[in-house]
Design goal:
The chain is built from ten helices and five strands, in the order H-H-H-H-E-H-H-E-H-E-H-E-H-E-H. The protein is α/β, with parallel strands linked by helices.
Length: about 300
């Protein structure tokens, strides 16, 4: 039989502590909407109230040992509502990115865009003409016949993309297709389920801004070494966001395996820093999506 101490600890973790988002505290209006397919289950205010009542009863009838622990460490045995999910937080853009954002807004105002590339540095560097992370030559080779707008911003996150779309980058043009990959920069602060919600919120915003566009949603590319915990976060995130695929407006595609060798490592010639594609990495990317992107633009 489990002791009262362990019962108390188990009690905490079975009372709705998911560590994700405080929507149950009446904060729903402040957060971006999320597709139900990737939404995290969150307790209602009534469920939290019932959990608090149950905890109070538990403490009243607990052993002296458990009650002493509760007096010393009340937060150890408590009903904790989920934390806010910053990946779907009120749209926020790092001030360092404002100039780039404004430049994108001007591109959006001019219109005449067939396909939108949207994301962070991995998408951003398609424009690099030279250097270790040069993608422009590959872009011209495979997509030079398309009117491409690249709204990738190095360092950005899901919440940053939400800000940008809501503040000018999501209007003024009608793309036929959008290629989206975002979320790798969220891995430092967010869990996989939080990142998936953030990506889902971006997809929902894109569907609102560009109702006739087809969205090519790419799984987050692998990074670092095979045993790095970030690989697990990315894999779990991709598994969740694959549910956004509907075969109509949203088309999910995971090409991550194409960047790996037989041991699951990323060859230096593909991504020299095990994160950002080099020319060979962009060639692999282009070859992997060229056909489906062309189909989506018809």
């Amino acid at each position: 039989m489990i002791s009262n101490v362990y019962n108390a600890i188990f009690f905490v973790f079975t009372l709705g502590f998911c560590g994700v988002c405080g929507l149950c505290q009446g904060q729903l209006a402040e957060y971006a909407p999320v597709p139900s397919s990737v939404a995290i289950a969150r307790p209602t205010p009534e469920e939290v109230r019932l959990a608090e009542i149950a905890l109070a009863r538990f403490i009243e009838t607990a052993s002296v040992e458990v009650q002493e622990i509760y007096k010393k460490f009340p937060e150890l045995i408590s009903v904790r509502v989920p934390r806010p999910n910053t990946a779907i937080a009120p749209p926020f853009l790092n001030p360092r990115f404002l100039a780039r954002h404004q430049a994108n807004v001007e591109v959006a105002k001019r219109g005449d865009i067939d396909v939108l590339f949207l994301g962070d540095s991995i998408m951003d560097f398609w424009r690099n003409p030279d250097g270790a992370y040069a993608g422009k030559e590959i872009l011209d080779k495979y997509f030079g016949n398309l009117k491409v707008a690249n709204f990738g911003i190095s360092g950005d996150t899901t919440q940053g993309v939400l800000y940008r779309l809501k503040n000018g980058e999501g209007k003024g043009f009608t793309p036929k297709a959008v290629m989206l990959m975002i979320g790798t920069n969220n891995t430092a602060a967010n869990t996989a389920i939080e990142i998936a919600e953030g990506i889902g919120a971006v997809v929902l915003e894109l569907q609102k801004d560009f109702p006739t566009a087809k969205i090519l949603l790419l799984g987050i590319f692998p990074r670092s070494l095979p045993n790095d915990p970030v690989r697990g976060i990315i894999s779990e995130t991709n598994s969740i966001i694959s549910r956004l695929h509907d075969g109509k407006s949203v088309h999910y595609m995971d090409i991550g395996a194409n960047f790996l060798d037989g041991e699951g490592k990323i060859p230096v010639e593909v991504m020299s820093d095990a994160l950002h594609p080099g020319p060979k990495g962009y060639e692999i990317w282009a070859q992997s999506v060229q056909e489906i992107l062309a189909t989506l633009m018809k």
